[in-house]
Amino acid sequence: MKLTHIRNATLLLEFEHQNQPVGLLIDPMLAGLGALPTLKWFGGRRRRNPLVELPPTAQALLGHVTHALITHCQRGHFDHLDSKGRRFLREHATPVFCMPRDDAFLRGTGLLTQCLDGAKAQAFFGGRITPVPCLHGRGMVGKLMEHGHGYFIDLPGEPTVYIAGDTLLTEPVRHALTVLQPDIAVLPAGGARFDLGGDIIMGPTDIGAALQLTSGIIVANHLEALDHCPATRAELLHLAQTMGEHKRLLVPADGQFYIFSTSPRSAISS
To answer: Is the pTM of this model over 0.85?
Structure first.
């Protein structure tokens, strides 16, 4: 299995199904540098998003896409599906897996949806996919957010993968890490927050806690791409070194890929 971190939450998961290549594009934000609004409204740290361009390999990577998977996309969450991402999926007639809440919304934008069957484990490319609920903030800010779902993906002959989506370290996330024990967990690590309210996704401290809940590999994302995510790659790399977990906590650069095997758990990086 090949996992390529493209930027922020956008990644490409590549594997084979019935001897055919599958390229599963997750949460495509494909806008150019500064093409999207700021997510901060006060103070001197406002910047238009995304803060960085797509990596030079992005166009070639998009040529591998056969399907897409969306964690959440409504209430202004352009960082998981922006207008350029929608246009790409629409123009290529890409089948888009989504949860029932997003199905009508996405079909209304002209996308070819394949609605998942609620929150239970279900068939997926010869294996199984299990949605895991997200909590994208608590309190008043949480009421304004679109919480969405992450996904635990178990495919024959491949390492298991948990794509967490935008979430805090909640009991469903802890259950996914401790009971499902994914070989690979892609977790948000940017510590995103708005001008008011608490964090709306995990930050470095939560990633440290997650490392103690699972024996698998953690891939950190949501880093250095949006103006409301203050955590840096340097912080995560320092955490990995401090905990002695540099082999289990991966902090990819934009465009970096890993090839994962199942036994033993290992990753070959680009």
So the answer is: yes
